[in-house]
Every structure is written in C-alpha cells, then in structure tokens.
Amino acid sequence: MQKNEIEKQPGCEDELNECLLTVAEAQARILDAVSAVSATETLPVREALERVLAGDIVSPIDVPSHTNSAMDGYAVRAEDLPADGVREFPMPGTSWAGRPWLAAIEPGQAVQIMTGGMMPEGADTVVMQEHVERDGDTVGIGAGHKPGQNVRAAGEDVARGQPVSTAGKRLTSADIGVLASLGLAEVRVYRRLKVAFFSTGDELRAVGQPLGPGEIYDSNRYTLYGMLKKLDVEIIDMGVVRDRRELIEQAFNDAAASADAIITSGGVSVGEADFVKETLEKLGRMSFWKIAMKPGRPVTFGHIKDAVFFGLPGNPVSVMVTFFQFVRPALLKMTGDSGSPGAYTVHARTTSALRKRPGRYEFQRGVLQQTAPGEFSVRSAGAQGSGILRSMSEANCFILLDPDRTRVETGEVVEVQPFQNLL
Ligand code: AMP
Ligand code: MG
Known about the structure:
Layout: H1 3-7, H2 23-33, E1 40-44, E2 57-58, E3 68-69, E4 73-76, E5 87-90, E6 94-95, E7 111-113, E8 125-128, E9 132-135, E10 138-141, E11 151-152, E12 163-165, H3 173-181, E13 186-190, E14 194-200, E15 204-205, E16 216-217, H4 220-229, E17 234-241, H5 245-258, E18 261-265, H6 276-283, E19 285-290, E20 293-294, E21 298-304, E22 307-312, H7 316-334, E23 346-350, E24 361-372, E25 375-380, H8 390-394, E26 397-401, E27 413-418
Helix pairs in contact: 2-7, 4-7, 5-6
The chain binds adenosine monophosphate and magnesium ion (MG).
Magnesium ion is lined by residues 200-201, 266-267, 273, 314.
C-alpha cells in the first residue's frame, strides 16, 4: 500500500468505493452510526449486576440512617471533656449496634457504645475504649480529645435525595452494594442487547464431524461466542451458512428480524464466493468495507432494517482484532453503557524485533509483562499470520504499530493495548 493512498482516505466521499479508511476514522464512524437500545426492564438488584442502569438513582434515605460511632468506646458530650487532668464519668448503659441506648445522655455521663451503635441523643463525641480508664460503671477520660471525633454522621455516605448513580452506568459489585444500602430491591436497566452471528464458508465443518478434503473446523463462532459472553449480551448463534447467495440473503433477513446487531465472519473479500458485501448492499445500507490495518483489512459495516451489521473477515485472528477494535465499542454503546470501553494502552519496551510494512496500522499480538511499577516489557507472541489463532491464545495484548512505523528493533518503546479479561 502506498502512503499517498492512505492519505487520501479522509476524502473518501463515495463510501461504496474501494477506498481505505484509517482505524480511527472507522471507529468514529461506527460509533456515530449506532445508538443505545431504549427499552428497559426492572430487575432484582443482584440480577442487574453487569447490566446498564436506565434511570438515575436518587437516594430515598440517609446512609447511614442514624448518626453512629466509628469505634468501640464511650459517647460523651464534647463540652463535658476535661481541658486537663482526668474526669470521672458515670456510665449508665451501652448502645450496641442495632440495640441503641434510647435515653438521652445526661450532662457528665459517658454511654458505652459499639462500632455502628447509634449515638445517644445529646452525645456528639466518642472516646476510644483504649483511651479511657474503666472502673465498674465509671470511666475516667483524660484531656486531648477532639469534639466530634469518631462519629459518623447520618447521611455522610449518601444523603437522602442525593443522586447516587446516573443512567448509562454499568453496574459493578460496588454499585449493587450501594443500591442495597439504599434499601432498593429492584432497579431499572436497559434490556439486554440481542446479537446474532453466523459463519460463512463452504469449507467449514462443525466440531465433532470428520473433515473432508479442503475442509476446516469453524472456530470463529467460538471466539465470537466467547467475546460476546464477556459483554453480557443475548447471543443468537445461527451456525454456518454456505456460500450461496440465497442462503446468505435468507440468513441476513432472519438475523435482522430477531437481533439488534448481526456479526458475520468470512465472505467479505471480492472472491467468487464472497456474497456478504453484495447482500448487504441489496438488503440494507453499506457504509464502507476496507480499513488500512492488518489483520482485518476488509470489514463491512452497515444496517439491515433496524439491525446494525458487522461483516468481519474470515481469518480467525482478523475476527478477534476487528471485533475488539470496532464491534466491541459499538456494542457497548448500544447496550446504553456511557462509560469507557475499558481498553487502555501503556508503553512497553519490546524484547522482540518486529517486522512491519509501512502504510497500515498493525495490531501484532504480544505478551506484556510488568518489569517494575509502571514499567513494562513486551515480546511478540510468535508468527503473526492472520490465520494463526494460537497467537491470540498466547498473547495478552496488541502491540499497536501506527502506519508510519516500519521495522521495530529490540529495546524500542512501543504502545501496547492489553486485552486480558476483555476478550
Ligand atoms: P474468507 O474471508 O471467507 O475468504 O475467509 C478467509 C479465510 O478465513 C479462509 O482461509 C477461510 O477458510 C478462513 N475462515 C473463514 N471462516 C472461518 C471460520 N468460521 N473458522 C475458521 N476459519 C475461517
Ligand atoms: Mg469464505
């Protein structure tokens, strides 16, 4: 690929033309062309883990609901604390967590109190039990305590009426804990996204069947299944579709009738048996189909009726790379998630020399290792062919090599995008 061809991409006016888009441009266009589902459902809080909040949460109560002690100790009135020497306080009883001392504190008294115990009316300060001299029902308290110490105010975590979380937040373990702390049993979330996928190719066999001459096992439906599972979407596996115009068309129509998004693999080149692109043009709208990247150059994006369509290349590594770079951020947006997709990059010193052709963005597979706090090294995960799926299995990151870059020598710093736990 010549450099001047890359540079003319932004002016790619005719979207059906065989022009090359940059990775960033393709990502932006795809994100721009998808929107969040609008339907919602109400779920018990635990079932809402990993789902996306559909409305803002405003606290119906103060958390904690009562002013309480942060320590095991003695609740007193600050004004009764001695400026010097030791003062003896009569101790009328104990405020346990969940079993409060219901009487108001009298001047000069110290009520024993446990962590989480409700502060008796009139008391405003807690002296830790390690700092008193207890003698029967009397406690001796010395000087040097701060008024208000060791007390947790009602509502200091969350005040009644305070916004807690906003729509678009994917609920974490902490979030469902916060919802429970507010006493909420149910929460409204966006409905689950439905994603249909199928593989195309006459050469594909399902696992468990013997291979005939020239046949291979269909692995793309497994990697896609795994990557979709991580996104907590509803998965519609449509199997393998043979390379026949009518069958591909039928599969497109079926998928569009039931799914929000459709993902296919294979059949997006211009080979004799590559019908994905022409079928998308016939049944829907096609946005573009070539990106200046390796692996994964031919990628089709578009719409069929209301469904978003991603036609990924057939090569197994290309499927995973294009899914991570284009499909995953788009699906996250479609689920209503307004947070970041969670991918980040770090700089790492490469311990392998990397071969690269100029003019295209490369996503090489690497093994990232931390060598010291904030310092990383990366090595190549081996042969980088787009059909070598083992390189993905051994890798934990992509080594991002931008179009201008050529050969990278051992010891040079490269940008790396970890994908562990994201794919
Ligand atoms: P295609 O884009 O259909 O020309 O496919 C490109 C390459 O990927 C070919 O070598 C295919 O055999 C291979 N391929 C396509 N689909 C799959 C699949 N589902 N599993 C494994 N390899 C595949
Ligand atoms: Mg094919």
